[in-house]
Amino acid sequence: MNRILAKRQLSDEVFLMKIEAPLIAQERQPGQFIILQLDTDFGERIPLTIADADPEEGSITIIFQTVGNTSHRLAAMETGDAIENLLGPLGHPTDIRKYGKVVCVGGGIGVAPLHPIAKAMKEAGNEVTIIIGARNRKLVIFEEEMGRIADKLIVCTDDGSYGRKALVTGPLKEVCETWNPDLAVAIGPPIMMKFCAETTRPFGVHTLVSLNTIMIDGTGMCGGCRVTVGGETKFVCVDGPEFDGHLVDFDNMMLRLGTYTREEEADHHACHLDLALEEDHGNA
Amino acid sequence: MHDLKHLDAEAKKLMMELEGKTLKPRERAAIPPQEMPAQDAQKRIGNMNEVARGYTEAQVRLESMRCLQCKNAPCIKGCPVEIDIPRFIKHAEDGKFAESLAVIKESSLLPAICGRVCPQETQCQEFCTVGKMLKDVNKAVSIGRIERYVADVELHGGNPIMPEVASPTGKRVAIVGSGPAGITAAADIRKAGHEVTIFEAFHKPGGVMVYGIPEFRLPKAIVEYEINNLKQMGVEIKTNFLVGRTRKLRDLIDKDGYNAVFIGSGAGLPKFMHIEGENLIGVLSANEYLTRSNLMKAYNREHAHTPIFVSRVVGVLGGGNVAMDAARTAVRLGAEKVYVVYRRTEKEMPARVEEVAHAKEEGVEFLLLQSPKRILGNEKQQVRAMEVLSYKLGEPDDSGRRRPIAIEGSERELPVDTVIVSIGNDSNPLLEKTTEGLATNKWGNIIINDDCSTSIDRIYAGGDIVLGAATVILAMGQGRKAAASINALLASESGD
Ligand SMILES: Cc1cc2nc3c(=O)[nH]c(=O)nc-3n(C[C@H](O)[C@H](O)[C@H](O)COP(=O)(O)OP(=O)(O)OC[C@H]3O[C@@H](n4cnc5c(N)ncnc54)[C@H](O)[C@@H]3O)c2cc1C
Ligand code: FES
Fold first, then answer.
1. Ligand with an atom nearest the CA of residue B113
2. Contact in structure between B229 and B151 (CB atoms under 8 Å)
3. Which of A36, B45, B377, B489 fits B280 for a cystine, CB–CB 3.0-4.6 Å?
4. Is some CB atom of chain A closer than 8 A to the CB atom of B444?
5. Per the CB < 8 Å rule, is B270 touching A222?
6. Cβ contact (<8 Å) for B203 and A87?
7. Could you tell me the pTM of the whole model?
8. How is B19-61 classified by DSSP, letter by letter?
9. DSSP per residue over B119-171, as a string?
10. B398: Cβ contacts below 8 Å, ≥ 6 apart
11. Do A45 and B279 lie within an 8 Å CB cutoff?
12. CB contact under 8 A, A216 and B202
C-alpha cells in the first residue's frame, strides 16, 4: 500500500520518489496533485504535484524539496517503506489542447510539475519552448527530459554557474518579443510566477500559473487554500491549482503562505532534533 | 452546581424515598429535573476532555421517573427517526439498561452519539408533556441524557449486541462518505447480506463527527467504536479515496461492478461572507480551524505536526453549533478573549442550548444583533480588527425567523487578531461537477425522490448533501431510508 518503489536524490534538497498508487496512476492527468500524510494520528497533510505516472506499473512520481517537517521526514524514508496516507489525484487537470505556440517556464522544483504539462502540450500538437531556471547548477533538474520535449530549451541560473546567467523572466521577455507565443505556463516559486505574469502582461499572452498554497483536505472543505483571483475568492484545491496569472493576487497569497511560519519553524527545529537523536541511536 | 458527587448524592437520597412507590403523574412531574454533571468550567478550559460527564445510575433512574408514559407519546413525533421513547425510558426507570438500548436501536444506530449531539430541545423534548406542564422546555424530561446513559453502559464494557448479517447475496454496494448517513446506510445494507465498501476522502472515517465536532463534546473513541462495529460486521472502509477524482462516481457501477451506490458526502463547502478583508491572515473558516484541531490533533502541540493559528482575541461569526465549537476550541487553545458575533438574538441561535450555556460558562462573550461589515488588517495584512455594525430585528423571513436589519451609522471597531467564519456550509460541488446527469438544486444539494433515489439509476443519496447542513439524526434517518430502498432494489433483482 503506497510503497516507495524508487528514490533518487536530485540535488542537496530535492528528491524524486516513485510511489505505488495504481488508482491515482490510472486517473491522473497533467496539472493534478496529491496530498500525503506520513502518520495517521499526528501527521500533517501536504500537497505535492504529480510529476509523472505509469499506469501500467501502477506508480506515480513525485519530486519534492525538503522545506518543512513532513518533507524532511519523507526524504528520510527509503525504497520499500510505505506512505500511510496518499490521496489523489486532486485539482483540475490542465486544459491541454492545441494553442499553437506555448512557452513553458519552470523555476526550481516547479520544473517537475511542468514536465507532464509540457509533454502533453507537445503531444497535442503545439510548438513548445521551455525555459528552466534554478538558483545554481546543482538545482537544475529535468534538463534532459525537457530537452526531449522542447522545440527550443533555454536553461538559466541565478548565479550563472550553468546556462545563461539570468532570471527566467529575461528569456521569457525575449520569447514574447520575438516568438509571439499563444500561451505561457509558469510554475515555480510564487515570486517567480508573479514576475512571469508581469512579464507577459504587456504582450497580452495568456499565462497559466499553478499555485501551491497551504492545504488540509484538498477537497474544498476548509477554504484554507483560498486565494483572490480577479477580485473573487477561489479555492486552489478544487477551482485550481491553475489560474490566470494576470488575475492572481500574488502578494496576498505569499503573505498567506506565511501564516504559520513561526510555528512551523519551531516544529521543524524539533524534527531536526529528534531525527538527529534517531541517528545517534542508530550509531550506538 | 454540576459536581458529579453532589448531584449523585442528592439523586440517591431521593431515590431511596421513591423506590418501590407507585407514583402519580403529578408526583412524577414534581421530581426535580436532573442536572448534567459536568467538568468544572475553570478546569475544562485547560483540557480537551468531554465536558458533560453523563448521569449516574441514580440520576438516570430518577430522570426516567419524571416521564409520564403518555399514551399519545407526543415526544415520538418530535423524533426524526421516531424512537419509541416512552418504552426505552420505562426500561431505564427499571434499571434494565440493555433492554432500553435495544428499544432505541430498533430505530437509531448511533445512540451514544445522538444522545450527545441532537438538538433535543427542538425535537423530542420540545413536545414533552412534563415540559409543557412546567411551562419550560428546559424542564422537559431529559430524553437525550437518558439515551446517552443507556448507550454508554454498552460502550463501557457491556456486551455489544452485534447485528446479525444475512447470508451473502453476492451483491455489492458502494457508500460515498463515512459520516452518520454513510455509516447508517452501510450497516443496514450489510445486514441484508450485501457486500459493502465505504469510500472516504479523509484518512480517518467518521465525517463531521471526527473532523468537525470537538473531543470535548463528542469523544472520538465513541465514533471509533461505531466504526469498529461496522468493520466487525464485514463492512470494508477505504480511506484516502475521493469519489469523483480517485474514481468517477459512475465508474463504480459501470466498471467496478457495484450494484448500487449511496452518496452521503456531507455539506462540506464553507460559506464566506464576501466582505472586505476576508482573505487577510488570521481569517479562517471554522471547518479549517476545527479540522486542524480535531482531525489533525493540532491542539496536541507536543505531538502534532499540523500548526494551528495562535490567537489572543478571536471573533467567531455565526450562532450555530459550529460557531460554539470554534469559540470553545479557541478558549481551550489559549485565546484571552473570544467573542461570538451573531446577527440576531440568542433566541434565534440555531446552536444547542447546552452548548451556548457551556460556552458562556467558559467565558465566551456573545455580541448579539451585530455583524461585521469588513475586516481590517495591518501593514502585514494580518487581522487587527473587525468593523461591526449593529442590527435590529424586523419581520419574519422565509425561515420564520425575524430578519435582521442593519442600523445605519452604527459602525464600530472591535479589535481582534483572528476571525473564524462559521456561517454555515453549502454543498461540495465535486461530485456534481465530475458526474454528468447528477441533478442538484440551486444550492448544489443533490435532488432525491421519496425513496432517496437520485436522477441516476442505482445511485441514492442522503444526509447533508441532500438536506444542506443539517443534523446527525437527520443524516442517519436518510441513511436508513436509502438503505431500505437499496435493499428492496437488490432483493427484487436477486435470482436473475
Ligand atoms: C462543527 C460542527 C458541529 C456540529 N454539531 C452538530 C450537533 O451538535 N448536532 C447535530 O445533530 N449536528 C451537528 N452538526 C451537523 C452534523 O455533523 C451533520 O449534519 C452530519 O454529520 C451530516 O452527516 P453526513 O453523513 O451527511 O455527512 P458528513 O458527516 O459531513 O460526512 C461526509 C463524509 O464524506 C466524505 N466525503 C465527501 N465527499 C466525498 C467524496 N467525493 N468521496 C469520498 N468521501 C467524501 C467527507 O470527507 C466526510 O467524511 C455539526 C456540524 C459541524 C461542522
Ligand atoms: S485545502 Fe481545504 S478547501 Fe482546499
1. 1
2. no
3. B377
4. no
5. yes
6. yes
7. 0.93
8. TTPPPPHHHHHHSPPPPPPB--HHHHTT--S-SB----HHHHH
9. -GGGTGGGG-HHHHHTT-GGGS--HHHHHHHHHHHHHTTS---PPP-PPP-S-
10. none
11. no
12. no
Q: How many residues does chain A have?
A: 284
Q: Show the cell assigned to B2.
A: 454540576
Grid coordinates representing B284 are: 479562517
Q: Which of B271, B268, B252, B272 is nearest to B260 (CA)?
A: B252
- Is B63:B142 a contact under the CB 8 Å cutoff? yes
Nearest CB to B203 within list A85, A238, A264: A85
Measured in angstroms, how far is the CA atom of residue B264 from the centroid of ligand 1? 9
Identity of residue A228: T
Which residues lie closer than 8 Å to A20 by C-beta, 6 or more apart?
A1, A2, A3, A4, A5, A58, A59
What rounded mean pLDDT belongs to chain B?
A: 94
pLDDT tens track for A47-70: 999 999 999 999 999 999 998 889
Q: What is the pLDDT of residue A277?
A: 38
Taking the C-alpha atoms of residue B460 and residue B482, their distance in angstroms, rounded to an integer, is: 6
List pLDDT tens digits, range B199-233: 999 999 999 999 999 999 999 999 999 999 899 99
Q: What is the pLDDT of residues A4-13, one digit of tens each?
A: 999 999 888 8
pLDDT(A269) > 70: no
Of A221, A223, A263, nearest to B307 by CB-CB distance is: A263
Fold of B4-157: Fumarate Reductase Iron-sulfur Protein; Chain B, domain 2 (1.10.1060)
Ligand 2 atom at shortest distance from the alpha carbon of A238: 4
Confidence bin at A262 (pLDDT 50/70/90): low
Q: Cell 476522502, residue?
A: B201
Quote the CA–CA distance of A242 and A253 in Å, as a whole number.
Answer: 14
Substitution target from A36, A217, A268 for chain B, most B beta carbons within 10 A: A217
Q: What is the pLDDT of residue B309?
A: 87
Share of chain A above pLDDT 90, in %: 80
Whole-number Cα distances in Å, A140 to A145, A193, B428: 12, 17, 40
Instruction: Give contacts of A227 with chain B, Cβ < 8 Å.
Output: 279
Q: What residue ranges define each of the domains in chain A, with the CATH number in brackets?
A: 2-90 (2.40.30.10), 101-258 (3.40.50.80)
Same fold, B172-268+426-494 and B272-423: yes
Q: Assess whether pLDDT exceeds 70 at residue B265.
A: yes
Q: Class for domain B272-423, per CATH?
A: alpha beta
User: Choosing among A221, A228, A249, which should be mutated to test the B contact, i.e. which has the most B CBs within 10 A?
Assistant: A221
Instruction: With H, G, I as helix, E, B as strand and everything else as coil, classify residue A162.
Output: coil
Residues paired with residue A108 on neighbouring β-strands, in sequence order: none
| pLDDT number for residue B158 | 65
**Is residue A278 scored above 60 in pLDDT?**
no
Q: Which CATH homologous superfamily contains domain B172-268+426-494?
A: FAD/NAD(P)-binding domain (3.50.50.60)
Kindly provide the ipTM of the predicted complex, given to two decimals.
0.89
Domain range summary for chain B, segments of one domain joined by +: 4-157, 172-268+426-494, 272-423
* Closest ligand to the CA of B474: 1
